[in-house]
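Supplementary Methods S3. Complex input for the 6CS-bound model.
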Amino acid sequence: MTSVNEHLTDRYPTRGSSEVVMPRTDPVVWSEPGAPGPVGAADLARYEREGFLCVDALLTPAEVTDCRRELARLAADPGLRADGRAVVEPESDAVKSIFEPHKVSAVFDDLVRDPRVVDRARQVLGSEVYLHQFRVNMKPGFGASGWYWHSDFETWHAEDGLPAPRTLSLSLALTDNEDTNGSLMIMPGSHKTFLGCAGATPEDNYKTSLQNQGAGLPSDAAVARFAGEQGIRLCTGAAGSAVMFDSNCMHGSSDNITPFPRCNAFIVFNSVHNTTVEPFAAPARRPEYLGSRDFTPVR
Ligand code: 6CS
Ligand code: FE
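Predicted complex, serialized as C-alpha cells:
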C-alpha cells in the first residue's frame, strides 16, 4: 500500500502481507513530571507502565441517570437506525454502538468538556486535545456481541491516518461493568509494542468492521504471546466508574449473554499535535463520525 502521506514516515506499518511486531517509538505520558492535572504521580506512573488506569466514581449516580435517559431518547429516535452513526448488532436488530452522541445531546457534549474527563487527556497527552471519536457501546445483553482483541491505534492509524499513539480513550461505565457481562479486557503493558497486522484493508471496510472487525486483527500466536507475557486484566466497576487507556493497548471484550447491559461511553481525545492525515493503510478515509477532522481544541 503506497502511502499518500509522502511527507510523513510511516513509523507503524501495518496491514501488509505479514504480521510485524515492533516497539512503540513514542512516549506514553507526554507531559513533564509534575504537570498539573487530576491524575496523581503514582497513578500516572502506573498508566505509563500498564497503559490504563481505572477511576472510581468519575460520574455521580445522578449524572449516570441523565446519560441513560439521553440514550433511551436517542435509541427511541426512529431516524437513528437509518443513520450510519448507529451500528446494529450482527445477530439482532438491537443497537450495538451510537457514534457522535455529543452532536445530538447536550448531556454528552457537556461530558466531553467536563474537566474530570478532558483534563485527564490534556495531562497525559501533554497538550490541548480535540475529540477524535465519541461512541456509546450499548452491549445490551442476551447475546450482544463483543470485540475481538485489537489495538484501536492500529485501526485509527491504518484507516483514519492517525500518525502516532498520542491518543487516549476514556471508557465511562453507564451501567455496572461486571465480571460476567462483557467488560473491557486489557493486556497490561501491551501498549508498548505495536503489532502491525497482516492483510490489506478492504474497500469500505468500516461498513462491516464496526459489527465484526475483520482487518487489523492479531494472529492467535500474537495474542498468545502478548497474553502470556503480560496477562489479561478484566476492568470491572460500578456505573459511574471509568477506565482511561492508551490507544495502543491490546484490548477486547466478550459477548454479553447476561440480561444485564454493559453500556459504556468511549470518549477519544487526540493531541492537537497529532492530527490525522491520510490513511496509512486503507484505500480511502472513513466517515468523519469515526475519525473527526475537526481539530478544534476542546474548550
Ligand atoms: O474502528 C473503530 O474506530 C472502532 N473499532 C474498535 C474495534 N474499537 C475502537 C473503535 O471504536
Ligand atoms: Fe477498541
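The longest strand covers residues 129-137. The chain has a mean pLDDT of 95.
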